[in-house]
Amino acid sequence: MKTISSLVFLATVPGILGQIDMKGKAFSFYRKDSGPIEISPETFETFTAFTLCLKTCTNLTENMLMFKLFDMVNMNKFAMLLDANPSTFTGADLLIFYEDLQMSFHFPNADANKWRSICVAFDSNSGRLLFWLNGKLYQSEDVQKGLTDFVPMSIVIGRSFVGEDHSAVAQITDVNMWSTVLMSHDIERFITNKVTGDVINWRLLNYKTRGVVTIEPSHCSEHSWNL
Q1: Most buried among 32, 102, 168, 223, using CB within 10 Å?
Q2: Where are the alpha helices (DSSP H) in 9-163?
Q3: Residue 104 lies in a domain
């Protein structure tokens, strides 16, 4: 069953398939009952580089899998984990996994109630990984050259952990992915919603639910960009 209004789209049955323009909307993952979203990529071509961008905010107190990509060979090709309590869990605000590699990132002056725009780009030929936070290039490092190319088969976003505080929620929006490394001016255009991806397009999103999923406007401040 689907309940649709101008403010909220509620899918209550696991396995619901949909294609929707998600402009101005966010997936809300409540600590109780929320399941992840499986996104079908726009292309199944092999590529050697990518850029992933999304925006998120949360008042959860545990870590959350924001994004995970599976390909034909590796079930753990690429993943991003947001840690709402790094001093307790992982020691970092954001963990990025690519095959067997693990990279840690720290947010300056973190505020869990603010939107964060996160972009990650990687080129397997050069081995260079780039990380933008709120539109600014925050970190660039040489990781490892020659990592295998991949074909995106399945993408999962937003798995939260079950707890007693039913009001705790994480929101993810504007998920876009490109098969190239974007330039910094393109990242700035993403901030203002002027570009969409060729692998994942938030304006034409193909998805499948794995539990109770809520699509609604953001509860977070639209002006909270400077951390």
Answers
A1: 168
A2: none
A3: yes
For 21-54, the pLDDT digits (tens) are 999 899 888 766 667 888 989 888 888 899 999 9
- Helical residues (DSSP H) of the chain, grouped into ranges: 184-191
**Domain count for the chain:** 1
- Residue 165 CB contacts under 8 Å (≥ 6 apart), including other chains: 31, 61
User: How much is the pTM?
Assistant: 0.84
Q: Which contacts (CB < 8 Å, 24+ apart) does range 130-133 have?
A: 130/181, 131/96, 131/105, 132/53, 132/184, 132/187, 133/107, 133/227
11 compared with 176, residue with greater pLDDT: 176
Q: Give the sheet arrangement for strand 152-157, strand by strand.
A: 17-20, 205-209, 37-39, 152-157, 63-71, 78-83, 94-98, 101-105
Q: Supply 153's token pair.
A: 């088969």
Give the structural domain span for 65. 2-216
